[in-house]
Amino acid sequence: MQRAAFSLEKQRALIDPVWGGIYQYSAASKWNEPHFEKLMAYQAANLEAAAHVFQATGNKAFLADARKIDSYLEKFFTSSNGTFFATQDADLNAHEKDKPFVDGRTYYALDDAGRRKLGYPRIDTHVYARENGLAIAALCTLYEVTQDPAVLDRARRAADVILASHVTEDGSVWHDADRKTGPFYLADAAAFGWGLLRLGQASGDTRYNLAAKRIALAAVKNFVDAKSGGYFEHTADENAAGVFTQRQRPFVHNVMCARFFANLSTEPIWRERTRRILAAISTPHTLDDQGRMLGDYLLALDDAGAYSW
User: Fold this and answer.
1) Closest Cα partner for 55 from 145, 151, 147, 152?
2) Spatial separation of the C-alpha atoms in residues 21 and 6, rounded to whole Å
3) b/e map of 288-303 (b: 16 or more CB within 10 Å)?
4) Which end of the chain has the least Cβ crowding within 10 Å, N or C?
5) Ordered structural domains, the chain, with CATH
6) How many CA atoms lie within 13 A of 255 on its CB side?
7) Sign of torsion, CA 243 215 257 83?
8) According to the model, what pLDDT value does residue 134 have?
9) pTM given for the model
10) For helices 2-11 and 60-76, what crossing angle results, to 10°?
C-alpha cells in the first residue's frame, strides 16, 4: 500500500493543474518533464488507481485526483451523445499547417484564459469501442467509491450508445462505427466487454452482463488460437498481404481478455479459457518484453485465482 500511494503521489505531477486529466508520461528520470499528450487509456487507468487508493486509505487527496481526471473526461473527452473520445495532442496546431505551432511546454504553462485564447490542441473525436470500454469501467470504479449517481449515469449512457452502434447481433465489436469494414479487433471486444461487465456489477442491471457474455462468445469464435489457447489480435483480413497475413497474439490485449473472462461467469469453461490465455502469454520472452509494465497481468492472475491469498 505504501508503494501504491507513493507512486500516485509522485505521479500527481502529471495531472494538468488547469483542466485536469493526466499527461502521458514524464520524459525524464523525474516527474517534471511531462509529455503533454492525453490518451484515454491513461485517463481510465489513473482514474481507477486513484479511486482504489482513496478507497483503501481514506486519503481524500486521491479522490481529488480521481475527480480531476473525471472532470477532464466530462468537459473535453465526451461527445454530444455521451460516448468518449480517444486522445488529445501534446502541442497546439501540430496538424494545422496554416496556424502557428505552440509546443506543449509553452501551451500548458498558461492559465485557462490563456489557453482558450490560443485555441485547443486537437482532440481525436473518433469513438472507439476499446477506449469507451476502459472509460466505462473506470467510471464504475469511481461510482463504487463515491456512490455518485451522475457518474454511473454517464457510464450507462456511453454503454448504451456503443452497444447500439458498435456491437453486431452476434456480439462482434466494431472498432469504429463509422468504418464498418475490415477486421474485428480483440482489443475492442475485450475492453468493451470488460466495461459492460463492470457496469453490470456496479448498477445491478443484468442486461449489461448478458451483453458482455454475448461479446465474449463472439470473441472466442473470432480470435481464439486453438493451438496455444491465446487470442489473436484481429480476425483474418482478406485484404492483407505478405507479413500482414500473420496474426499476432498481443500481450496487453490478451491480458484484458483474461480479466474479462475470469470475471464473466462462474461457469468452469470461462475459468479454463482464462487459464489457457494466461498460460499462452506467460513465457520468459513475453514477460521480459513487458519490462515493468506488468500491473494488469498481476491483476489478471489474481482474477484467475492464481494467488492463494
Assistant:
1) 145
2) 19
3) eeeeeeeebbeebbeb
4) C
5) 1-77+87-125 (no CATH), 127-309 (1.50.10.20)
6) 17
7) positive
8) 98
9) 0.95
10) 50
Task: Scan for cell 511546454, then name that residue.
Answer: 105
Cell 469494414 sits on residue: 181
How far is 118 from 304, CA to CA, in rounded Å?
A: 49
Look-up of cell digits 479487433: 185
- Cβ neighbors of 146 (< 8 A, separation 6 or more) are 51, 63
Going by C-alpha positions, the residue among 198, 224, 213, 217 that lies closest to residue 299 is: 198
Report the C-alpha gap between 58 and 51 in whole angstroms. 10
User: Hey, what's the cell of 296?
Assistant: 494488469
- The C-alpha cell at 27 is 520524459
Average pLDDT, 10 consecutive residues per value, the chain (309 residues): 94 97 94 95 97 97 98 98 97 93 97 97 97 98 98 98 97 94 94 98 97 98 96 86 80 97 94 96 94 93 89
- Closest Cα partner for 142 from 220, 82, 55, 218? 55
- Find where cell 487507468 sits: 45
Say if CB 260 and CB 216 are below 8 A apart: yes
Contact between 245 and 198 (Cβ < 8 Å): no
* β-bridge partners, 234: 185
| Alpha carbon separation from 117 to 48, 92, 122, 306 (Å, rounded) | 32, 12, 15, 53
The rounded distance, in Å, linking the Cα atoms of 68 and 50 is 10
CA–CA gap between residue 94 and residue 300 (Å, rounded): 38
Distance set, CA 205 to CA 149, 167, 253 (Å): 14, 18, 26
